[in-house]
Amino acid sequence: MLTIFGFDFSSPSNKVRFAANAMGLPYEYKQVNLLAGEQKSPEFLKLNPTGRVPAIDDNGFKAFESAAIIKYLADKNNSSLYPKDLQKRAIVDEWIDFANIHVAAALARVTFNRVMYKMLNVEKDERSLADGIKFLGNFLPIIEKQLKENKFMAGAEMTLADINLLAVLDPAELSSVDLSIYPSISNWRKNLRSQSFYTKCHSSLEEVFQAAMAAGAK
Q1: Distance CA 103, CA 5 (A)
Q2: Which residues lie below 8 Å from residue 4, measured CB to CB, with a gap of 6+?
Q3: CA dist., res. 70 & res. 76, Å (int)
Q4: CA distance linking residue 57 with residue 43, whole number of Å
Q5: Residue-wise pLDDT tens digits, 122-170
Q6: 13, containing H or E segment
């Protein structure tokens, strides 16, 4: 049985769950409490030496890094989400890389300095926050143009590029990032967030976070 190790607030972890759900794969989900430091335990470090989530154990095969995991799962299960055609696959790969290297990194700056710094009891980095907002302003219009011209990120069919970007953008509301100024992104996102592969994980990341905070305050 495939086991996915993750954390409910972790977009990379949820990315793996979205992909597994979209492929119809059975799996066991084990939450690793990052706030309690469980990712640094000797047991978990055997799964992922970086001490981060996600990680998987697929009947003894262990892997980490969300993009590598979803590609592995798609290849293993002959999923059309990751095309076999070399050129089509390259297009999927380029949009996965673009989203992870540019959009995810920028949004992480915003999320950390608007949300996470309070939980970690550290100072807000105003420069990093400003840079994150600036970078999103540079990179999201590129995504918007792609989705204005195509139904999905890599063309006419949903691929891992869509699942990857969906997870990358999941903290937007939580981080007070307004995506409504990008109508193509908003419509694309609304469509995917209504599908069962997403709703099996949560209705929104913001609701998961708020529920957890409310429970912790009691």
Answers
A1: 24
A2: 13, 16, 17, 20, 27, 28, 29, 30, 54, 56
A3: 10
A4: 13
A5: 999 999 999 999 999 999 999 999 999 999 999 999 999 999 999 999 9
A6: helix 11-22
Among residues 111, 105, 116, the alpha carbon closest in space to that of 35 is found at 116
Burial of 111 (0-12, 13-18, 19+ CB in 10 A): buried
- Which of 35, 88, 43, 97 is CA-nearest to residue 66? 97
> pTM, whole model, 2 decimals?
0.95
Q: Which 3 state secondary structure label does DSSP give 5?
A: strand
For residue range 37-67, list pLDDT tens digits in order. 899 999 999 999 999 999 999 999 999 999 9
The number of residues in the chain equals 218
Widest Cα–Cα separation across the chain: 53
Give the ranges where 35-182 is alpha helix by DSSP (H): 42-45, 66-76, 86-98, 105-111, 117-120, 126-149, 160-168
Cα separation of 81 and 161, whole Å?
Answer: 8
